Amino acid sequence: MTLTDEERGQLTQIEERSSDWRERRRAQTVLLLDQGLSIDAVVTQQKIHQETVACHRDAWLVRGFAGLRDLPRSGAPRKLSEAHKQVLCAWVQGEAYTAPQLRSRLSEEQGVQVSVWLVQSALKEKGYVWKRSRHSLKIRDEATFREVQAEIEEWVEKSKLGERALAYLDEAGFAQAQPNRSAWTEKGKVHLMPAERGKRLNVLAALISRGELFTAKFWETTTAALLGGFLGLLLESVGRPLTVILDNASIHKAKEIQPLLALLKQKGLTLHFLPPDSPELNRVEKLWHKMKYEWMAFKARNAATLEANVDKILGGFGSDYRMTFC
C-alpha cells in the first residue's frame, strides 16, 4: 500500500485529533501498512485481529477516507410506534398517570414491553412535561401582576430614600411533625421519621425593607383581632408611614377589624393586597420555605423544642440566618 504525501498528512491529523477512537485506530492501521509493515506486524503493534486489519485495509482501498468512518446502521426497530405515542397522549390527557403506571397499561392493553425512561422520552417528544396538577384552572392576570411588580419596585426605591417604610407580611404554621422531604436512604429501605402530633405554632411575620424581621407567635389560631394588634405594633415599631404588602386571606379583610384599620390608616398605615396567585411578590413567603426545608433540622419535635427552634431562627435572622433576593 502506497500513500501520497497529502494522504499521509491528513491521516496523521486524523490519528492525532479525531474525537472518534475508531477513526484514529483505522487511520493508524493504514499508516502502518504504508510503512511496509505486514498484516501480522500491524496485528502485533495494534493488538487487534488479522480480520480487523484486513477490513481496515480493504475499506481504505475501496472508499478512501470515507472508509475510516462507520457505515450507517439500521439499529433495532422502535419499540414505541407513532400509534403507541398517540395512545399515551390520549391517556395522560384523560387522567393523571405516572410513567410506571403508563408502562404497566401499555403492557396490559397494547402488549408492549418498554422501560419507564422510554415512556418519559416519548411524552417529552410530544411536548409533555412532568408538573404538579391543580384543582382549578384559575390563571393570574399577567398584566396586573407586572403592574403590581413595577409598583413594588417603586415602593422599594422610596423606602431607600426614607420616604416610607415597606413591609411584606404573611403568616405560617409550624407543626411538630417536620414536613416530608427527600433523604439519602439505603436501597430497599425506608427513611422513617417519627411524627409527633400536637398543636401548631403559628407565626405572624413582617419583613421590613431595611432588612429587619418583626414577628409574633401564637399557640392558637391566627385571628383577625390578632392581626390587627400585630399591625398596630408594627406601625409603632417602624415609627414612620408604612406600606404593608399582603395577600387576600380572609382575616386580612375581616369586617371586625375595619374600624381599627381605618384608625391605623390615619396614623400612616397603607395595606396593599396582592393580586391572586402572586406569591412571588411577597418576599416573606421565602422565609417560610427556608425555615421549614433548610434551616430547621429534619426531625420530630415536641412543643418546647419546636418553639425553641423557631425562636432561634427568628432571633438570629439577619445574622445567623440570611436570605438574598435576585
| Structural domains: how many | 3
Largest sheet descriptor: 5 strands, mixed
Which structural category fits the helices and strands?
A: alpha/beta
Under CATH, the homologous superfamily of the largest domain reads Ribonuclease H-like superfamily/Ribonuclease H
The span between the termini is 66 Å
Low-confidence stretches: none
Strand content: 5-15%
- Strand count: 5
Q: What order do the strands of the largest sheet run in, or round the barrel if closed?
A: 3-2-1-4-5
Q: What string gives the helices and strands in order?
A: HHHHHHHHEEEHEHEHH
InterPro entries: Homeodomain-like_sf, RNaseH_sf, Tc1-like_DDE_dom, Transpos_IS630-like
Organism: Candidatus Accumulibacter cognatus
GO molecular function, one term: nucleic acid binding
Protein name: IS630 family transposase
Summarize the topology.
Layout: H1 5-17, H2 21-34, H3 39-46, H4 50-63, H5 82-94, H6 99-110, H7 116-125, H8 142-161, E1 165-174, E2 201-208, E3 213-218, H9 224-238, E4 242-246, H10 258-266, E5 269-273, H11 285-295, H12 303-315
Parallel strand pairs: 1-4, 4-5
Antiparallel strand pairs: 1-2, 2-3
Helix pairs in contact: 1-2, 2-4, 6-7
Notes on the structure:
This protein has twelve helices and five strands. With 326 residues, it is α/β, with parallel strands linked by helices. The protein folds into three domains: 64 residues, no CATH class; 44 residues; 160 residues, Nucleotidyltransferase, domain 5 (2-Layer Sandwich). A five-stranded mixed beta sheet has the order 3-2-1-4-5, with helices on both faces. Helix 1 packs antiparallel against helix 2 and helix 2 crosses helix 4. The radius of gyration is 34 Å and the shape is elongated. The mean pLDDT is 89.
